[in-house]
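Try this one yourself first.
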């Protein structure tokens, strides 16, 4: 439902959500999904084909947020697609896997603090669930290990550890 601003004009749900955050907080929340996607592709050293499969799964998982019942998640997705990121994450940032993953987890802790202080509990939970789902879909997009597919697992130990660390960072800002 639209909300009225102090000047009396009606605000969209997206505009109402944006007003709850400082610009740097909003930037953190809108850039974090892509950074999590890159970190998730870096959790396990993969072939180029597997990395592409994981990246495509991540893009689809980000876009799936457009159907979320959460105003916050839908507003973040709309912002991701409406604005060109001047410094988008790229595969080169995944060269030092440990440092890249650590940096993303630090950002997740910062995002958790922002969510807890600025978002409704329902929106905060929806955002956390959405970005965890992005990471899970990326990590599960291509099987790891095995020979000719026999004995392969959906999530390697490294990917499972990343998912566990991510959940902890998002819960314990």
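Now uncover the answer:
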């Amino acid at each position: 439902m639209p909300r009225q601003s102090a000047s009396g004009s009606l605000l969209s749900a997206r505009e109402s959500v944006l007003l709850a955050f400082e610009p740097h907080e909003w930037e953190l929340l809108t850039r974090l999904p892509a950074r999590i996607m890159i970190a998730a592709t870096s959790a396990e050293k993969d072939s180029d084909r597997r990395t592409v499969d994981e990246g495509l799964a991540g893009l689809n998982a980000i876009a799936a947020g457009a159907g979320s019942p959460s105003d916050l998640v839908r507003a973040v997705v709309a912002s991701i697609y409406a604005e060109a990121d001047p410094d988008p994450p790229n595969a080169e940032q995944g060269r030092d896997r440990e440092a890249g993953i650590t940096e993303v987890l630090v950002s997740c802790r910062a995002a958790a603090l922002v969510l807890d202080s600025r978002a409704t509990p329902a929106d905060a939970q929806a955002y956390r669930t959405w970005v965890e789902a992005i990471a899970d879909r990326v990590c599960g997009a291509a099987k790891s290990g095995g020979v000719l597919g026999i004995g392969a697992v959906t999530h390697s130990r490294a990917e499972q550890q990343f998912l566990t660390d991510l959940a902890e960072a998002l819960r314990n800002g």
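Discussion: The chain has one domain: 12-171. Residues 44 and 76 are 27 Å apart (CA to CA).
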